[in-house]
């Protein structure tokens, strides 16, 4: 999957490290620079790429401009092209290689295609709306064509994050027109963004099977499956996760961990309880011999499940893996992996296998009463989740799991600022995680320096930062951090609108209100708004009418509640419809329906801004 945004920080840091200002990079240094950002290619491949660039006149002379180098990395950073050249011969035999732009080569692993298709069959086969699309065949080769009408993707999004898409808005039926299919795909892409998926470089056309970009489809499918599997791996869903805290750690430390890290701790916790001396650090090399899985399944299985450890008596690894999976079958948890996937250490599929085991049989003791009280105070709010999803959808690296800990060193904030105003961050002034000292006292000062620099840049972006210091970000001060994040999101939204002006002049909020009211007037709608706090917004009617003006006839008014005394339920129903319809016509809406029905004016502003953006595309 082409996710170059995840490399943006490395690219800028590497360029700053090797070059003064933005001078072109000598072609002789391209291979070294690619390796510096994590893309390793054989020399002959680099020569071929440079020849292609010269032939297309994208490179002139003996140097490459920074922008062209960034575009090259965007093309090469598939899932990843680096893996294409490091992959084993066995994977080469079980994968389809697809040529991409600028000599990039994308790899679609057959075992992932099979496993993901099987998951879709198991989870959606009873849904009448996709009855004409399922079952997918055993090889999963028809997965891409079956995704063309967008219905499957919309359904998967609602599995990953329930109620994200209002089912009333999905175009359904066996023979949808191309236009209706593209509407569904646009809805799916914007909804995937809203729940934190990275969809850089993906649109309704690139997802169509006729484009042959299987790696994009499979990458998005994996993100959704992973999100579905991970949604239960939280303290609110499984309070017993507090048992994974190490000595000296607090509940907030657990919130900082990624789902992958939590699963590693969970496996090792169960191994310790089982009296095993084995521990794992990954889901590839450390699980290949099936010993860990055999111990894990025996430990978490209900006493009457009839699970045994006979797999440990098998010498041949494939036979051992098959015997181990037979035990997983007994606890209804045989999914995602085949014996070959275990023995080869196929990381994604083994991660999914373990996540499924956790979801079915967490086998963790309940927390103590005092910890339950603390948990109530730390659970993620609706606003926090929305901000986190917004950041992650932009491809920030690493992914944000908990706002107040993951932003503490300023690095995510710098990436967001660079999206808002490219070039504003002077990366030579930033201390990355790799550059920071191993000495705690010195590292603390380096992190504080980053946070102070973030505040300095915030002022350049005209943020209101009265009373906010770098130390507040580093300490994870909730109120002040949220205030900063909101201003980042607002600035990002307005920066997208400023691109509509030929000279790039900023758009202000009053212009958005004027645009909306003029549109409504032109469309003959008898409604207007005075400001974003206008109580009329709680009905969502101004937004729904605005969508109808932008795309005449797209609104089905039989679904819209109207009248002078609308109930809270009516307002929320309209809000759900409005948000999903906005995404369907191409508006990148991150706000939740409750933000509109409760008139959270800041988020209401972003809805109107997104519609203005969609109208001018």
Number of helices: 29
Using the CA coordinates, give the radius of gyration: 26 Å
User: Largest sheet, order of strands side by side?
Assistant: 1-2
Query: What is the count of β-strands?
Result: 4
Derived structural class: mainly alpha
Strand content: under 5%
Q: Please outline the major beta sheet.
A: 2 strands, antiparallel
Query: Which stretches are poorly predicted, pLDDT < 50 over at least 5 residues?
Result: 1-6, 78-92
What level of helicity do the residues show? 40-55%
Characterize the overall form: globular
- Give the rounded overall mean pLDDT: 89
The N- and C-terminal alpha carbons lie at a distance of 25 Å
What do you see in this structure?
It contains 29 helices and four strands. It has 617 residues and is mostly helical. The strands form two sheets. It has a two-stranded antiparallel ribbon. α7 packs across α11, α21 packs parallel to α22 (440-460) and α26 runs parallel beside α29 (601-615). The two termini are 25 Å apart. Residues 1-6 and 78-92 have low confidence and may be disordered.
């Amino acid at each position: 999957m082409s996710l170059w945004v995840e490399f943006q920080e490395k690219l800028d840091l590497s360029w700053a490290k090797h070059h003064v200002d933005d001078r072109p990079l000598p072609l002789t240094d391209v291979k070294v620079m690619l390796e510096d950002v994590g893309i390793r290619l054989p020399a002959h491949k680099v020569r071929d790429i440079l020849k292609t660039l010269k032939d297309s006149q994208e490179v002139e002379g003996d140097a490459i401009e920074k922008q062209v180098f960034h575009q090259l990395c965007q093309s090469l950073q598939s899932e990843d092209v680096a893996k294409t050249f490091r992959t084993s011969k066995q994977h080469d035999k079980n994968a389809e290689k697809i040529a991409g732009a600028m000599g990039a080569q994308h790899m679609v692993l057959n075992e992932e295609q099979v496993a993901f298709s099987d998951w879709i069959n198991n989870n959606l086969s009873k849904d009448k709306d996709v009855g004409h699309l399922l079952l997918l065949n055993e090889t999963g080769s028809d997965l891409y064509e079956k995704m063309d009408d967008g219905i499957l993707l919309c359904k998967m999004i609602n599995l990953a994050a329930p109620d994200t898409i209002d089912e009333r808005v999905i175009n359904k039926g066996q023979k949808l027109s191309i236009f209706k299919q593209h509407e569904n795909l646009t809805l799916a892409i914007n909804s995937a963004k809203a729940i934190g998926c990275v969809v850089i470089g993906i649109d309704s056309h690139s997802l169509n099977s006729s484009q042959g970009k299987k790696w994009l489809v499979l990458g998005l499918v994996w993100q959704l499956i992973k999100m579905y599997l991970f949604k239960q791996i939280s303290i609110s869903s499984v309070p017993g996760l507090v048992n994974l805290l190490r000595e000296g750690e607090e509940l907030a430390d657990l919130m900082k961990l990624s789902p992958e890290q939590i699963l590693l701790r969970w496996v090792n916790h169960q191994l310790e309880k089982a009296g095993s001396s084995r521990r794992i650090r990954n889901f590839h090399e450390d699980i290949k011999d099936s010993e860990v899985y055999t111990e894990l399944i025996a430990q978490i299985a209900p006493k009457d499940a009839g699970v045994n450890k006979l797999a440990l008596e098998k010498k041949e690894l494939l036979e051992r893996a098959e015997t181990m999976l037979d035990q997983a079958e007994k606890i209804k948890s045989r999914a995602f992996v085949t014996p070959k996937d275990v023995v080869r250490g196929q990381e994604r599929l083994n991660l999914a296998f373990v996540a499924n085991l956790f979801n079915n049989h967490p086998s963790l003791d309940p927390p103590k009463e005092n910890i339950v009280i603390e948990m109530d105070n730390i659970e993620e709010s609706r606003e926090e989740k929305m901000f986190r999803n917004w950041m992650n959808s932009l491809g920030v690296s690493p992914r944000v799991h908990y706002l107040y800990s993951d932003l503490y060193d300023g690095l995510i904030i710098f990436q967001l600022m660079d999206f808002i105003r490219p070039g504003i961050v002077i990366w030579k002034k930033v201390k990355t995680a790799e550059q920071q000292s191993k000495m705690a006292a010195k590292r603390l000062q380096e992190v504080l320096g980053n946070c102070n620099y973030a505040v300095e840049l915030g002022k350049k972006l005209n943020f209101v930062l009265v009373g906010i210091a770098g130390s507040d970000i580093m300490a994870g001060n909730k109120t002040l951090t949220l205030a900063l994040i909101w201003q980042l999101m607002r600035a990002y939204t307005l920066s997208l609108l400023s691109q509509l002006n030929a000279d790039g002049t900023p758009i202000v909020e009053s212009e958005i209100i004027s645009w909306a009211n003029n549109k409504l007037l032109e469309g003959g709608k008898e409604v207007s708004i005075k400001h974003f706090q206008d109580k009329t917004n709680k009905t969502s009617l101004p937004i729904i009418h605005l969508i109808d003006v932008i795309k005449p006839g797209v609104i089905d008014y039989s679904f819209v509640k109207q009248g002078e005394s609308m109930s809270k339920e009516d307002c929320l129903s309209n809000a759900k419809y409005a948000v999903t319809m906005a995404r369907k016509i191409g508006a990148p809406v991150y706000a939740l329906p409750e933000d509109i029905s409760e008139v959270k004016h800041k988020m209401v502003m972003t809805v109107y801004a997104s519609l203005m953006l969609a109208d001018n595309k």
